[in-house]
User: Fold these one by one.
Assistant:
Number 1:
Amino acid sequence: MSRQKDKTLSIRTSAEIKQLLRMAAERERRSLASRIEILVLEYRGHMS
């Protein structure tokens, strides 16, 4: 399922949350943006 990525999203968060996201992304060999995208899609799946 390919999506066109043409929008930018900036967020402010704590250093702890950023580090946790970075660790999760590295563990899966993904970019930080990709890991956040997956989290949002998983959340959407749980809301259905």
Number 2:
Amino acid sequence: MNATNLSLALTIGVLYACGSYLLMQRALLRVVLGFVLFGHGANLLLLLAGGEARPVPHAGTTAPGEASDPLPQAMAITAVVITFGTTALLLALVHRAIVLHGDDLHASHTLPPPAGKGDQP
């Protein structure tokens, strides 16, 4: 593993860690940002799985063994499109929650606290 792969792996780990932290927040906008960070980490993971950069696979100009594999790049661009569409949907839902409730906090913050032993007469 060379220094580039190591730094990319650490970056992916940081993106996943920050994304999982934001996904556990009560504010819906932070949840959306956590999902976006997860998407960026997944895209980098797909590009890292593709291996090192090699010549473009043109027919007749590059030997089949020397050409780069286009599948990880195709999967990464598909993941970008899916992440973009899902992010747009989540942002629309957050906007609707803000319009209806006035804030973007999850509904669980309005629940009454559980009754304890000292609350009973």
